[in-house]
Amino acid sequence: MDIPLPGGGGEVSEDYSPAATVVPFNPPLPLLRAPVPSSSSASTDPMPVLAFRDAASWRAAWEAAEASLFSQCEAGARSGCSITATRKCKPPWWKGLFGGATTDYQERERCEEREMASCLESAKEACIKFSKQKCDAPFRDARIASEGLLENTNFDVWNAGCNKTASGPLSVANSHYSSNPALGGTNYKGSDLLDSLASQDNSKSE
Q: What pTM did the predictor assign?
């Protein structure tokens, strides 16, 4: 015996089409990093480590993380500054006890705008410093795969199919490390890349 569905008016639903029965899911996000062997000569079966595809994806992830932290910090600071400006510019509670002058709301609005602008300016510098401090250590210690190691991987690493080539100094440094196994083997640290770029800048300035 067919049991009518709730709200169906006694009629049995027979729609079993994909549109009615399949639940769509969002496509998986590309991985920021993929596993690579920790060293090319450590052992026959080295333990893998997570590494960025190349220097360009490492830099892009660093910049995206800093921007996200800064945006969240600034949003929180905006709420805090709004409360602070309101407290600083509201008239004292005792003014209304003795029938004093009425509140000048235009002046109060200008006061809140000044306090808000000053507070946000200070918060902006603090948020920039905060986002850089939080990202500096993790990304300096992060591993970057040697050039070409992850190009034929089955992992979808940071939209690897779009652009697999780093540009400018990052490409030169990435090639330098991949061509010299003694420096990093299958991977190297972000701090090694930064030191390499710094030494290149120093040699050009001399």
A: 0.64
In a domain, 17, yes or no: no
Answer whether residue 41 is part of any domain.
no
Report the pLDDT averaged over residues 41-66. 82
For residue 37, tell me if it sits in a domain: no
Cβ-count burial of 33 within 10 angstroms (0-12 exposed, 13-18 middle, 19+ buried)? buried
Edge-to-edge, what's the strand order for the sheet holding 187-189?
34-37, 48-52, 143-145, 187-189
Whether residue 78 lies inside any domain: the answer is: yes
* Burial 154-191, CB ≥16 within 10 A → b, else e: eeebbebeeebebeeebeebbbbbbeeeeebbbbbbbe
Total tally of structural domains belonging to the chain: 1
pLDDT 10s digits, 33-50: 888 887 655 456 667 889
pLDDT at position 184 over 60: no
* Per-residue confidence (pLDDT) for residue 99, from 0 to 100: 64
